[in-house]
Specification:
Radius of gyration: 17 Å
Shape: globular
Distance between the termini: 43 Å
Helix content: 25-40%
Order of helices and strands: HHHEEEEHEEEEHEH
Length: 183
Amino acid sequence: TTYLTTCIENYISQGLWKKLAEFCEFATTLPQLRAVPLEIFSSIARELRNEQPFALEQPATPISVPTTRDWPLLLPVSVNGGSNVYFHLNTGQHLTIITEADARQFGARVLNVTLAVNTMFGKVNVRPAFLRELRVGSVRFRNLLVYVFPAEEMTAEMKPEICRILGNRELMRLGEVSIYPEK
């Protein structure tokens, strides 16, 4: 199960949708793997089969991106060429998450599947969504799968920028991230 989950996660993070579909089809022949929701991942692969794979564009030299100074750390992010909005820099959250309102505003392609993920708000049912571009400073994440936080899970005290999370999957893609108080 761990091997299967790792392979699926790897194909998703690279945006290799056809390989994900092939792998899920192969995995259905393994009867002992009932714990992995293969039908969900197969559905994601089918819906995104014609999309380009993930690509990271970053300058050769280090960049600096300002954040807020207090918790939660917020940083400006542009999605699909729009104006900057604040994302919560949450190293404890693996996935990048946006709200339903964000998905509409950003023109995200929200997929017709739901899966449960752990968040700082507990276990939440989210829907995968495809973004053409997410830009942090001069770093561009292209063809990125993110997850939509459902409106019905948001409470009155939850501000959108807290539920809008840049996950550590994207941070790890950068190789190294440092936080400097003076910057």
